[in-house]
Amino acid sequence: RRNAYRREALHLLDGVEAAQLSALLKRAALARWPRAEVASLSGAAWLAFLDRTGRMSAFVAGPGHSIEAMAFGAEMQESDVEAARSVARTWLRRHRP
């Protein structure tokens, strides 16, 4: 029950548009962390939060970096979108406070 938000986000991940990847991760983060800690995060701070809580470096220095650009409508190659989706999937499975 405690991880229902995680299961729902993983279920939605493959069907979500590239531009919505960051929003999906933000909803999952808001389900796990206090709103005051997460809601205002964007840009580099948001990516650093994802890396820190996911115990990874794929958002700041890897393929997950593009989720912010996608959120603002940047065109990406399908391979870049799938790489970002894979990083998002990893974060959803392993993030911890």
In short:
This protein is mostly helical and 97 residues long. Helices cover 63% and strands 0% of the residues.
Brief descriptors of the model:
97 residues, mainly alpha, globular
Largest sheet: none
The arrangement of helices and strands along the chain is: HHHHHH
Shape: globular
Mean pLDDT: 96
Describe the 3D structure:
This protein is mostly helical and 97 residues long. The chain is 63% helix and 0% strand. It has six helices and no strands. It has helices spanning 4-13, 21-32, 35-38, 43-54, 66-71, 78-94. The longest helix has 17 residues, at 78-94. It is globular and about 35 Å long. The chain starts with a helix and ends with a helix. The model has no long low-confidence stretch (mean pLDDT 96).
